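From the methods appendix. Each design record in this collection lists the tokenized structure first, followed by the designed amino acid sequence. Records were kept in a plain field format so they could be parsed without special tools. The example shown here is representative of the layout used throughout.

RECORD:
FOLD TOKENS (189 positions):
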């Protein structure tokens, strides 16, 4: 019988001050570093690994459940879907269009109704999210896009930060959508 190797204990971590500023681009840095971060960002925006992605969270929702707000829950599935779409559209357009005007916050980021006005509105919202994710992925995969430079018309934002914001925001509301579907008995994953 082969002996199992004994694992070494991990060194103790010490508290350290974190610097959240984007790293400076170093001349002569490993040529694959930039391609690697672009690949990982594109993957983050296009796939789900550790949890349900937005596509799964909103796929196959029965029309009768799309506008239901369970007790104690602040939003319906329609409101979450549209909120993801509106916020993502705003982030993408801000990232690539210096003339973009964001909706009024917070009212402009939420739909006016609890239920979609039609099945087509639901489908159109899903298609728009997919289109805008593709737009952000194209932006970050373009080697001419400087992920670390401040967006000239912004207040310190970078394309890297905006891409991560889309992923983070979508993941947060995707979790809410899964919870609502579980409450409604409409989640079988």
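DESIGN:
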């Amino acid at each position: 019988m082969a002996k199992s190797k004994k694992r070494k204990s991990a060194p103790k971590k010490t508290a350290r001050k974190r610097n959240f500023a984007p790293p400076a681009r170093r001349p002569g840095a490993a040529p694959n570093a930039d391609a690697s971060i672009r690949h990982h960002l594109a993957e983050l925006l296009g796939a789900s690994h550790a949890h349900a992605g937005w596509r799964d969270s909103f796929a196959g929702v029965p029309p009768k459940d799309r506008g239901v707000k369970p007790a104690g829950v602040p939003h319906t599935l329609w409101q979450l879907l549209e909120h993801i779409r509106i916020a993502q559209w705003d982030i993408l357009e801000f990232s690539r269009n210096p003339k973009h005007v964001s909706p009024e916050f917070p009212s402009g980021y939420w739909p006016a109704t609890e239920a979609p006005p039609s099945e087509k509105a639901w489908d159109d919202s899903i298609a728009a999210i997919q289109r805008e994710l593709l737009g952000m992925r194209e932006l970050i995969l373009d080697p001419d896009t400087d992920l670390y430079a401040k967006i000239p018309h912004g207040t310190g934002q970078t394309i890297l930060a905006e891409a991560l914001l889309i992923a983070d925001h979508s993941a947060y509301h995707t979790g809410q959508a899964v919870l609502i579907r579980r409450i409604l008995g409409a989640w079988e994953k």
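APPENDIX NOTE: DSSP finds five helices and no strands in the chain.
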